[in-house]
């Protein structure tokens, strides 16, 4: 049986740093634990000749595919994704650098109303972070689920109200996601007309039809954003791909797989803790994660799902390998908080 390693130092190596978060870049970090940018780190633009940068706020209702899209755009799985709502709990920057241009995607929680936030006791980030992303954004990408017959013809009222306040200040593009699920493609033309031609429509400069899941149309969107970049200094060094810590990426990835594979509301009542992070001599990474259940009863229920836990570990390993670009060996330990 796996055991929890309390107060274990998480070790990082410069070699892993270079392999996972560097693109032909000679990195010699002063602190080997700066695997990804620490949240407290004050990012400052380092101006180079002909540098361009674009900060994109990705907004949308819950479960429209924002994080999946961001991962496709930067070609790394640094944002946690699942089929359940409220997977993304706080704003995170995902960074893509190509040539002299840097794109910074601000992935945000699905916008919720005040009533929903109170009813489900959601953290303040669900209301705060979408608003905060607009304060620094150069452009807004509004993601709409084109497959949801109940909501696709109308932009969420909270998002509508938020964007109406800035539509004369910040350019906005409409991104229709999940188009691969539509059987009748003329539905898209009707949807575009409804969302862009009505009296209450927001002022979109462009419309993109994509499938974040299989990547259709994502390259065109990325190229558009690269071409739209402004002449300004980069906010992050070229080897950075996220402003999340390594610990946060691992924890959020495992949590997302719990949401996908455990029944009903069980995953929402659990905590995920990174106990051990050990880079191997072959550049592989060994990770031990604890799933902390609120009580012994729930702990027993989770332990019974042996095959599901194995599946969670395998899927999480695959996503972390795509994020860190190296072999990841993940072990999961289940324990009770009481």
* N-C termini distance: 19 Å
Give a quick account of the main beta sheet: strands, pairing sense, barrel closure.
Answer: 7 strands, mixed
Beta content: 15-25%
Q: What are the segments in which pLDDT stays under 50 over at least 5 consecutive residues? A: 1-46
- Mean pLDDT, as a whole number? 85
3D shape: globular
What is the count of DSSP helices, taking H or I runs of 4+ residues? Answer: 10
Order of helices and strands: HEHEEHHEHEHEHEHEEHHE
Descriptive overview:
There is one protein chain. With 338 residues, the protein is an alpha/beta fold. 33% of the residues lie in helices and 21% in strands. It contains 10 helices and 10 strands. The chain has helices at residues 14-21, 66-74, 114-119, 125-136, 157-164, 186-197, 218-228, 246-261, 296-304, 306-324; strands at 52-60, 92-98, 101-107, 139-145, 172-177, 204-209, 230-231, 271-279, 285-293, 328-336. Strands 1, 2, 3, 4, 5, 6 and 7 form a 7-stranded mixed beta sheet that branches. The longest helix has 19 residues, at 306-324. Mean pLDDT is 85; it is low at 1-46.
Brief digest:
The chain contains ten helices and ten strands. By secondary structure, it is an alpha/beta fold. The two termini are 19 Å apart.
Describe the secondary-structure layout.
Blueprint: H1 14-21, E1 52-60, H2 66-74, E2 92-98, E3 101-107, H3 114-119, H4 125-136, E4 139-145, H5 157-164, E5 172-177, H6 186-197, E6 204-209, H7 218-228, E7 230-231, H8 246-261, E8 271-279, E9 285-293, H9 296-304, H10 306-324, E10 328-336
Helix pairs in contact: 8-10
């Amino acid at each position: 049986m796996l055991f929890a390693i309390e107060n274990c130092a998480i070790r990082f190596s410069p070699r892993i740093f270079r392999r996972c978060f560097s693109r032909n870049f000679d990195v010699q970090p002063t602190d080997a634990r700066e695997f990804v940018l620490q949240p407290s780190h004050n990012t400052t633009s380092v101006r180079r000749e002909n540098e361009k940068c674009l900060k994109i706020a990705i907004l949308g209702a819950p479960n429209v595919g924002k994080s999946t899209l961001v991962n496709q755009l930067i070609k790394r799985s640094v944002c946690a994704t699942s089929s359940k709502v409220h997977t993304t709990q706080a704003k995170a920057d995902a960074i893509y650098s190509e040539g002299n241009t840097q794109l910074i995607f601000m992935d945000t929680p699905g916008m919720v109303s005040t009533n929903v936030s109170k009813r489900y006791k959601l953290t303040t980030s669900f209301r705060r972070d979408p608003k905060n992303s607009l304060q620094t954004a150069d452009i807004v990408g509004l993601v709409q689920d084109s497959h949801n017959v109940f909501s696709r013809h109308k932009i969420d009222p909270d998002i509508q109200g938020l964007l109406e306040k800035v539509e004369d200040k910040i350019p906005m593009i409409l991104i229709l996601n999940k188009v691969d699920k539509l059987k009748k493609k003329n539905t898209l033309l009707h949807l575009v007309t409804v969302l862009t031609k009505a009296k209450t429509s927001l002022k979109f400069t462009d419309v993109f039809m994509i499938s974040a899941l299989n990547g259709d149309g994502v390259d065109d969107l990325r190229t558009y954003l690269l071409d739209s970049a402004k002449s300004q200094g980069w906010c992050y060094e070229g080897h950075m791909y996220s402003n999340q810590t390594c610990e946060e990426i691992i924890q959020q990835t495992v949590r997302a797989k719990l949401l996908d594979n455990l029944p009903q509301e069980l995953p929402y009542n659990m905590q995920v803790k990174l106990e051990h992070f050990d880079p191997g001599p072959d550049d592989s990474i060994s990770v031990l994660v604890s799933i902390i259940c609120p009580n012994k009863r729930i702990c027993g229920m989770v332990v019974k799902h042996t095959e599901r836990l194995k599946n969670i570990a395998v899927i999480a390993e695959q996503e972390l390998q795509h994020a860190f670009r190296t072999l990841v060996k993940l072990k999961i330990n289940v324990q009770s908080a009481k």
